[in-house]
Structure formats: structure tokens, C-alpha cells
Design goal:
The complex is a heterodimer of chains A (about 200) and B (about 450). Chain A has about 200 residues and is α/β, with parallel strands linked by helices. Chain A has helices at about 20-25, 80-85, 100-110, 115-130, 155-165, 170-175, 175-185; strands spanning about 5-15, 65, 90-95, 110-115, 135-140, 145, 150. Chain A has one domain (about 5-165): Aconitase, domain 4, CATH 3.20.19. Helix content of chain B is about 30%, strand content about 15%. Chain B is built from 16 helices and 19 strands. Chain B has a 5-stranded parallel beta sheet with strand order 5-4-3-6-7. Classes of the chains: A alpha/beta (about 200), B alpha/beta (about 450). At the A-B interface, α3, α6 and α7 of A face α2, α3, α5 and α10 of B.
Chain lengths: ~200, ~450
């Protein structure tokens, strides 16, 4: 996983709540077997509208997404995070996230930052007012800074450590390989298993 | 004395492989369900890292999301994905139920059908509707592709401890109110993020009165309230459903299992982080009007005045005016299917309404059974004849129009009464408009051409 320590960039203000993963990447694009190349499919339907924020030249090159509450609801598709990552986004700032989306972000190093609704509003207003506004997301210090906004955010210490170090979850788990072996020996024989001839 | 604990806590505790301060618990996974869409990148990453599948015997795969539901050629893109799954399963020694196999079907339909979904298990799948399996008192969690890879490699999953939430529905469900209406009513009350961070346990006499199919419908849509999982305590209904199924325990192991399963329900005195109560008597058949499942009213209601900008956007997308009676809305298409409502009981319910009746002229109507075994069972009962006589297309098993990954899609502007779980913009096809309903309402609506309940047919 790509480590995340601190990132400074311009932001895309997506002022909508309950943005579901079907909007982030529609299902009909999930038939690919590759992990890359999802960036151009990001918000595929909404971006057909020339006025959609992602199409506005003043926001080109944004690397931080600002969004409304319950961002990433619905389907578990990690493709949604791959699309954001592939389109250049390093962090999403919103008042709240859906659980699976948040997990998926933390697995691949796109940082989900939860801030109070007023703070996200202030960041959106700042960016709408001046699209060249730069926002810094500092995971080390757990702070979001923009010219007019300075906010602390919370993240569980374990996830923070993993992101800062860019550690692979599977490697971490395999440090407990003995515990997995030991657990397996205690599983009752009646539990289901399937082997097909 | 042992501290009283909830069903979710008990199932969680028995799966802890490793616990350390400041770390998420490492949980053992009893059953990993795999399908063609969220797995290819996980298998590829495993290969690149030189890792193998730890427990192919605890992993079961099927093809459901993009499979065609009519005979004929498969588009090359979907074909590639299906072939990748076939190759990956063969290489890893994973049991696969591919298209054309009698065992094939929607992943959340075949697990229970095979008797693999059992009380007290930890079940995961790269699909958010994995919550379905919680109907048996299993802890069933939807995961992303990185987590699929993690489970393939280690048969475990690191998880933050969830909060617990009780949703209690007491009383007798009014006539015509189905499990779908129960869960839509709950989501309408708590909202699409009402369950975020929580494992929901559905409790109360109305929940206990539901069949396993009904409980699966309720648990299935837990994710639409944002919940990490939904559960129902196992009871005699659960045991009766499981007994004799191919992968259920038998003989002395069955007795051992029953004894264990009886210890799972939430202890008296156990507390939940959040509690919500719903009176069964207050529930009615529900119809969604907007673009998320929380934007739902009863069939007797009017399309509401928009309370915020999101609701305004939803109304514009759905091309609806506030104040319109739900019964005056006329769909173009009827879809009966999806992991929410494609089980045998759902098909029986719809067929009961359609028996001797015809789909309103000009409407497109299709039934997509949840699995090939459900299809075969329905055909044994003659339900296919009822559907066909009414004017419904009778398809093969798959996710189909629930998410429009295969050719079963809505056209732009097309309006659908759908027994599926998500009414998101474009979910059933670009520009399509989805109204979530129960199988009975879908069937009655097919006959009358506007949203209706079976009771309306007799009027």
C-alpha cells in the first residue's frame, strides 16, 4: 500500500449527500478484471453534464474530494476507491462515510477524513470562492488546514499507523500465523466445508 | 457470573483469533462466498504476491452479477470475467457453481439453500448484501476486494468492534404487509445511515413470526440503513429450515449443533448501544419514491414535499411531483428478483396474486428466480405457468435487473416497480427510475398498471 503521511492539493467540491458507489462507478463498468483504468469512469453519469464540478476547468487537477454526509453508501465495490485513486484523488473529506467504503479506502491508502458538517461546508465555500485554494491533509498531526480553516480530525490509531507506514494488511496478519493455526485446530468438526469432486 | 451479551457479541467472540490492545480483532472466517465481479483483482494480487488460497474448502463461488438470464451468447467482456473466475477456482481448488450448473444462483440465495449458512458462523463475501445470511444468526459482513484477497490468503479478517443496535418490531403484521415492507418501513424511519457502525439485531414478535425467507429479506437490506450486518436470533424456524439440507450437520452432529445454536440468542439483561422500536400495526405496504431506500412512503401516501436539496434532486430524477398519490404512479416495467426477493416464497407470493390475471397491456414484466434450484422448485409447483399465463417472462437465475450488469436493464426514463434493494440513480440502467416494492405489490401493480396492493385487485 502507498503510504499516506501528508498531502497538499486543490479540492473538488461535490456538494451532495448520500453519494452511493453506483454513482462513483456504475455497475456496468465492473466487468473488467483489471484493477487499473477506472479513473475515466469516475462519476460516469454525472460527468455527462458539462456543468458537473468534475468537468469544470477551474477544478482540474484536484486531488482532494470534498463531499456531503454518508459518502460511499451502497455497494461494497472497491472499484469506487480505485476510480478515485486513478483519477488522482488522495483523500476524501466528508461529514460521514459508509463503513465498507471507508474500509476500502484505508486498505489502499486513500485517506477518508471525517470533519464536522460546518467544517466541510467552510472548506467547500473556500474552494468555490477560490478554486486555487490549497488544502493540506496531515495524517501525522491529524489536521486539515486551509487558509481559513484549521481542523483536527480523528482516526483510529491502528489505521493511522498502517497508513503512515504503508503496511500491507496481509503481511501484518501473517505475523499471527501461529494463532490462526491454533484457532483452526479448535474448530468443531461439524462446521460446514465444501469440496467438490 | 458471565456478563450478559448480545447475539452479535457472542458470534464475534467465538471467532477471535488474535486480540491485542489498540489493534482490530483478527476474526476467523467460516465461510467465504465469492462471485465473478469483486474477485478477479483479488486472485491476481494473490498471484503477484506469490500467495495461495488458505482454505479452498471454506470458499464457495458462483456466477451471478453479470450472467445472462436468457439463453444465447454472452458478451465478451462478461465472458472474460466469468472465465477468470472459472480459472481462479480451478487453480485454487475452490468449488464453483458456474452458469449452466443446477447449483448456480445469486450468491446470497445459494448459501442458505445449500445449508452452508448456519447460526453462529462468520460469513463474508465481496458484496454488500452479505448481510442476508444474518437471518440465520450468523455474523455476515460485506467486504471489498482487498479484504477478499486478505480472506483468501489468511481465512481471517481484521475488524474493528462494531456497535450493537436492536430494532424491535412487536405485534402482528397487518394483512398484506410483508418482510420487504418491514425493512422498508424501518429504513424510512432510521434513514440510510441509521445503522452505520452497528450490527443490527432484528427482534420482537413480528420478526419471529417471519419465515426464513422473510428474515433474509429483512437482513438483506440492513446495508441500506448503513449497518455493518443484520441478524436474527436462531430459533425453531431456523432449525426447521436447515434440517436435511446438503451441508447442514446430521446425526449426532445435528444434536450438537442445535444445542450450541440454542445458546446464541441475546441474553436477558444484555444491552445494545442503540435501540429502535417499531409497532407492527403501524406498518403498511411501502413504495420508494426517491433515489435512496430511505426515500420511501406507504402505498396510501402521496409523494412528499421535498425536505432538502437531495430530495429535490431525487424528485427531478424520478420525474415526480409532490402531492401525487403513490397509487397514481404508473411504471413501465415490473421486475421480480434480486437477492432481496427471489426466493421460492417470494415467487409463490407473486404467483398467488397473478393467478388467473394478466399483466396490464404495454407493461414489460419479468421474474428472475434467485437460483436454478429455486427455478426448478417453482416449475414443480407450476408457478412458471402462472407467470407465463399472466404475461411475465420467466428467466434463468442471476442478479439481473437489480443492478443492470447484464443486458437486463431499464432504458433512460423507464420506470420500474422492482422487488430489489436499491433505487439509486441509474442502478437498473442509465436513466432508469426504480421504485422498491414487495413481490405482492409488484404483482398487483403489474395487473393494474399503477402501484397497488393485492387488495386493490378485488375492489
Amino acid at each position: 500500500m502507498r503510504p499516506f503521511t501528508e498531502h497538499t492539493g486543490r479540492a473538488l467540491p461535490l456538494d451532495r449527500s448520500d453519494v452511493d458507489t453506483d454513482q462513483i462507478v456504475p455497475a456496468r463498468f465492473l466487468r473488467r478484471i483489471e484493477r487499473s483504468g477506472f479513473g475515466p469512469l469516475l462519476f460516469a453519469e454525472w460527468r455527462k453534464d458539462p456543468g458537473f464540478v468534475l468537468n469544470r476547468p477551474e477544478f482540474a487537477g484536484a486531488t482532494i474530494l470534498l463531499a456531503g454526509p454518508n459518502f460511499g453508501s451502497g455497494s461494497s465495490r472497491e472499484h469506487a476507491v480505485w476510480a478515485l485513486e486513478d483519477a488522482g484523488f488522495r483523500s476524501v473529506i466528508a461529514p460521514s462515510f459508509a463503513d465498507i467504503f471507508r474500509n476500502n479506502c484505508c486498505k489502499i491508502g486513500v485517506l477518508p477524513v471525517e470533519l464536522a458538517q460546518e467544517s466541510v461546508r467552510a472548506l467547500m465555500d473556500a474552494v468555490l470562492d477560490d478554486p486555487t485554494t490549497e488544502i493540506t491533509v496531515d495524517l501525522q498531526a491529524m489536521r486539515v488546514s486551509a487558509p481559513a480553516v484549521h481542523e483536527a480530525f480523528e482516526i483510529d490509531p491502528y489505521t493511522r499507523w498502517r497508513l503512515l507506514e504503508g503496511l500491507d494488511d496481509i503481511d501484518l496478519t501473517l505475523r499471527n500465523a501461529d494463532a490462526i493455526d491454533a484457532y483452526e485446530r479448535t474448530r468443531p468438526a461439524r462446521l460446514p466445508s465444501v469440496t467438490r469432486a | 457470573m458471565r456478563t450478559p451479551s448480545t447475539l452479535a457479541e457472542k458470534v464475534w467472540e467465538r471467532h477471535v483469533v488474535h486480540r491485542a490492545d489498540g489493534e482490530p480483532d483478527l476474526l476467523y472466517v467460516d465461510l467465504h462466498l465469492v462471485h465473478e465481479v469483486t474477485s478477479p483483482q483479488a486472485f491476481e494480487a494473490l498471484r503477484l504476491a506469490g500467495r495461495s488460497v488458505r482454505r479452498p474448502d471454506l470458499t464457495v463461488a458462483t456466477m451471478d452479477h453479470n450472467v445472462p438470464t436468457v439463453a444465447g451468447p454472452v458478451d465478451p467482456v462478461s465472458r472474460t470475467q466469468m472465465e477468470a473466475l472459472e480459472r481462479n477456482c480451478t487453480q485454487a481448488g475452490i468449488t464453483l457453481f458456474p452458469t449452466g450448473d443446477l447449483g448456480q444462483g445469486i450468491v446470497h440465495v445459494i448459501g442458505p439453500q445449500m445449508g452452508l449458512t448456519q447460526p453462529g458462523l462468520m460469513i463474508v463475501c465481496g458484496d454488500s448484501h452479505t448481510s442476508t445470511h444474518g437471518a440465520f444468526g450468523a455474523l455476515a459482513i460485506g467486504i471489498g476486494t482487498s479484504e477478499v484477497e486478505h480472506v483468501l490468503a489468511t481465512q481471517t479478517l481484521p475488524q474493528r468492534t462494531p456497535k450493537t443496535m436492536a430494532v424491535t418490531v412487536e405485534g402482528e403484521l397487518p394483512v398484506g404487509v410483508s418482510a420487504k415492507d418491514v425493512i422498508l418501513g424501518i429504513i424510512a424511519r432510521i434513514g440510510t445511515d441509521g445503522g452505520v457502525g452497528h450490527v443490527v439485531e432484528y427482534r420482537g414478535s413480528a420478526i419471529r413470526s417471519l419465515s426464513m425467507e422473510g428474515r433474509m429479506t429483512v437482513c438483506n437490506m440492513s446495508i441500506e440503513a448503513g449497518a455493518r450486518a443484520g441478524m436474527v436470533a436462531p430459533d425453531e424456524t431456523t432449525f426447521a429450515y436447515l434440517e436435511g439440507r446438503p451441508n447442514a450437520p446430521s446425526g449426532s452432529q445435528w444434536d450438537e449443533a442445535i444445542e450450541d445454536w440454542r445458546s446464541l440468542p441475546t441474553d436477558e439483561g444484555a444491552t445494545f448501544d442503540k435501540e429502535v422500536s417499531v409497532e407492527a400495526a403501524d406498518l403498511r405496504p411501502h413504495v420508494s419514491w426517491g433515489t435512496n431506500p430511505g426515500q420511501t412512503v406507504t402505498i396510501d401516501d402521496l409523494v412528499p414535499e421535498p425536505a432538502d436539496e437531495a430530495a429535490e434532486r431525487a424528485l427531478a430524477y424520478m420525474d415526480l411531483r409532490p402531492g401525487t398519490a403513490i397509487r397514481d404512479i404508473r411504471p413501465d416495467t415490473i421486475f421480480i428478483g434480486s437477492c432481496t426477493n427471489s426466493r421460492i416464497e417470494d415467487l409463490r407470493e407473486a404467483a398467488r396474486v397473478l393467478d388467473g390475471r394478466r399483466v396490464r397491456e404495454g407493461l414489460r414484466a419479468m421474474v428472475v428466480p434467485g437460483s436454478m434450484l429455486v427455478k426448478r422448485q417453482a416449475e414443480r409447483e407450476g408457478l412458471d405457468t402462472v407467470f407465463a399465463a399472466a404475461g411475465f417472462e420467466w428467466r434463468d437465475a442471476g442478479c439481473s435487473m437489480c443492478l443492470g450488469m447484464n443486458p437486463d436493464q431499464l432504458s433512460p426514463g423507464e420506470r420500474c416497480a422492482s422487488t430489489s434493494n436499491r433505487n439509486f440513480e441509474g442502478r437498473q440502467g442509465k436513466g432508469g427510475r426504480t421504485h422498491l416494492v414487495s413481490p405482492a405489490v409488484a404483482a398487483a401493480t403489474a395487473v393494474l398498471g399503477h402501484f397497488a396492493t393485492p387488495e386493490d385487485l378485488d375492489g
